């Protein structure tokens, strides 16, 4: 039973990522940053949709670290984008 739930989670995440890559490729806007952000959103959605009601298995507790690393990566992307938008005279470099 736990293996089935784990496989369902992995299949859901892989399906989300493949669909994301396909849609971005069809729209002509496939980039690493956009794919990463949309995959992180998919990870959060699949994690919530497949969450057990009563007991949390050990492998799901380790997802916290993967999500935390993903959110740090998202923060880096946001900061880089903000720095690209700001005019050069605003930054004291």
UniProtKB/TrEMBL annotation:
It comes from the Archaea. The keyword Transmembrane helix applies. Keywords: Membrane, Transmembrane, Transmembrane helix. Pfam families: DUF8044. InterPro entries: DUF8044. The chain crosses the membrane at residues 9-28, 34-51, 63-83. This is Uncharacterized protein. It comes from Natronosalvus hydrolyticus.
């Amino acid at each position: 039973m736990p293996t089935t739930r784990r496989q369902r989670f992995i299949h859901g995440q892989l399906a989300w990522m493949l669909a994301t890559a396909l849609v971005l490729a069809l729209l002509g806007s496939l980039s690493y940053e956009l794919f990463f952000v949309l995959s992180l959103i998919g990870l959060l959605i699949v994690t919530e949709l497949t969450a057990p009601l009563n007991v949390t298995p050990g492998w799901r507790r380790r997802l916290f670290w993967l999500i935390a690393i993903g959110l740090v990566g998202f923060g880096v992307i946001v900061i880089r984008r903000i720095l690209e938008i700001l005019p050069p005279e605003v930054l004291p470099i």
